[in-house]
Design goal:
globular, Hyaluronidase domain-like, DUF309, about 0% strand, TTHA0068_sf, DUF309 domain-containing protein, about 55% helix, mainly alpha
């Protein structure tokens, strides 16, 4: 893993965007090891620290590597939607955030229906991710992967 963090959390319309390719070195995903991949794990850390756009950026690489129509792809899509909801909420766009919360919920429910502990996330960890997306406060439960 890495202790690297971006110098700031990107907030569209309010902060500068990160340089093109700033996250490329962290986007390598080995086939069959999605939940252990650098972009997945670093994305979880960044999400917990309030780097929502940055987590989304990393998770897109994992989503692209996931098998089509798989439980993993549903779970990743749901978590990406949570990051996007948190970002929209931070931008003061509550209606957009709520719509994304609903989309995330649908993806996460479908992922759970297809397989337990998808992407090495427990139900408790998924609830913690949802709480972060729905409010600015920090929560004690952090997604520590097995």
């Amino acid at each position: 893993m890495t202790d690297w963090r971006p110098p700031f959390a990107y907030l569209p319309g309010q902060t500068a965007r990160h340089p093109e390719g700033a996250f490329d070195r962290f986007k390598q995903v080995a086939p069959g090891a999605l939940s252990a991949s650098m972009p997945w794990r670093l994305g979880l850390d960044l999400y917990h620290e309030g780097f929502f756009w940055e987590a989304h950026e990393l998770w897109e690489a994992v989503w692209l590597a996931a098998p089509p129509n798989s439980a993993e792809r549903c779970a990743i899509q749901g978590v990406i939607q949570l990051a996007n909801a948190a970002l929209k909420r931070r931008m003061g766009r509550e209606a957009a955030a709520q719509r994304l919360d609903d989309l995330a919920e649908a993806h996460l429910l479908e992922a759970a229906r297809r397989g337990a502990d998808v992407m090495a996330l427990t139900e408790t960890q998924i609830l913690a991710l949802k709480k972060i997306a729905r409010g600015p406060q920090k929560y004690a439960i952090k997604c520590t992967l097995r």
